[in-house]
Amino acid sequence: MTLLALDPPDLLGEFYISFWIPTAVLTAALLIKLPTIVRLWRDPLLRAVGGLLLLACGVFVFCTPSTIATVNRLTGVPNISAPWCYSLLTAFCGSCLLLIITWRNGRSDRSAATRRAMRWVISVYAAVVVALWVLFLLADAPVERLRDLDTYYATTPFMREEILLYLVAHAVACLITSRLIWNWVRTEGLDAWLRWGLKLLGAGYALNLIFDASKLVAVVTRWTGRDLDWLSTDLAPPVAALSAILIAVGFILPHAGQYLHDRWRVRLAHRELRPLYLLMRTAGGEGVPFVLRATPELRLTRRETFIRDVLLPLARHIDTGLGGRAYEAALGLGHPPERARALAAAVSVLDAVEARSRGPEPSGAAAGPDTTNLLQEIGAVSRALRSPDEIEAVRALAAAPAESVAVHE
């Protein structure tokens, strides 16, 4: 994550453009999560997420050279953006550690060790923020520097200590966070989305360590009288931009990925039920009315309900003997048992629809077959209806005399 040198040179302009991607993503994530954070403020995980997103947005906004110049001009104090940006970054580092501790240990963890670790993080990084401002007040930094402040004032008393302090605090936080993340990645039973999110976070914090190393080498080199400023002004910014993108995506991916996966699963289930739904419309009249503002979950529920409501009375026309022969026929044709059951059920349902269209309803006293399994497997039956050739093959073999049907051993 960049500090006072977010504008890379022309040669690295692509990274500067990419830097705004995490800004937009984190701002959108903050706006989306803000109502939940306010409503469930007592949840420590949500508080940690909210604090991190807010601080990350603040770092990205205030550490650009244009914003640095504006803050300096409005306050009338040259380089006052330095302790402000350093403080935001330090607070962000502490927030990262708090989030990882809360996230890793779970919402319900109230152990003394967890509380002690969180108090330690808050105390140490709050003390660092106070020290940054004290050092700036003691320092003499009259020349405004928008992009190379770290190396320009690397040998200035008190500014030297301030620059070293924020870089060490940032490096320590990134090192500890990276270690915790990679240890967590290796644990068993993680959700796939969470595992990928953690990997991206680990990669992002590893790049942050490269950023810190570049800055520290450039600063220490200044102490020896040599000049490797390009490490701070040319290399560190693009590395930080890429790191910010990975960290932003890593924090959002477990939540957004699971949300999109659930939505896709619902839409896929709704689509898979279409063949059986259309068949039930031929047997049960009008289907489910279309509601423009209905959620995908509601549409799926209404389609499932409609199919089951039509299947219940249709069960009186189901020929259980045909269903058994169709199952044996499907097995004889080489289908696995699960697929054979779905094909047999599809054959039975098609036969029941045709029987209902040919003749009157059976007597009300007549009890139909048990349809529990059929009602639970409507998805598999609907998928089977997408293979009319297989259904016709099973149906033809099941309609043959019983002794001609190969018995499945």
Task: Give start-end ranges of low-pLDDT stretches.
Answer: 1-18, 402-409
H/E element sequence: HHHHHHHHHHHHHHHH
Q: In CATH, what is the class of the largest domain?
A: Mainly Alpha
Largest sheet, strands/sense/barrel: none
Helix percent band: over 70%
Query: What's the end-to-end separation, in Å?
Result: 66 Å
Radius of gyration, CA atoms, in whole angstroms? 32 Å
Question: How would you describe this structure to a colleague?
Answer:
It is elongated, with a radius of gyration of 32 Å. Helix 8 packs antiparallel against helix 9. It contains 16 helices and no strands. The longest helix has 43 residues. It is 74% helix and 0% strand. With 409 residues, the protein is mainly α. The chain folds into 2 domains: 259 residues, Rhopdopsin 7-helix transmembrane proteins (Up-down Bundle); 121 residues, no CATH class. Pfam families: DUF6545. This is Integral membrane protein. Keywords: Membrane, Transmembrane, Transmembrane helix.
Summarize the entry for a quick read:
Keywords: Membrane, Transmembrane, Transmembrane helix. This protein has 409 residues and is mainly alpha-helical. 74% of the residues lie in helices and 0% in strands.
Question: Helices and strands in order, then pairings?
Answer:
Elements: H1 13-39, H2 44-62, H3 65-75, H4 81-105, H5 112-138, H6 149-152, H7 159-185, H8 192-223, H9 230-272, H10 274-284, H11 296-314, H12 320-332, H13 337-358, H14 372-376, H15 378-384, H16 388-399
Helix pairs in contact: 1-2, 1-9, 2-4, 4-5, 4-7, 5-7, 7-8, 8-9, 9-11, 10-11, 10-13, 10-15, 12-13, 12-16, 13-15, 13-16
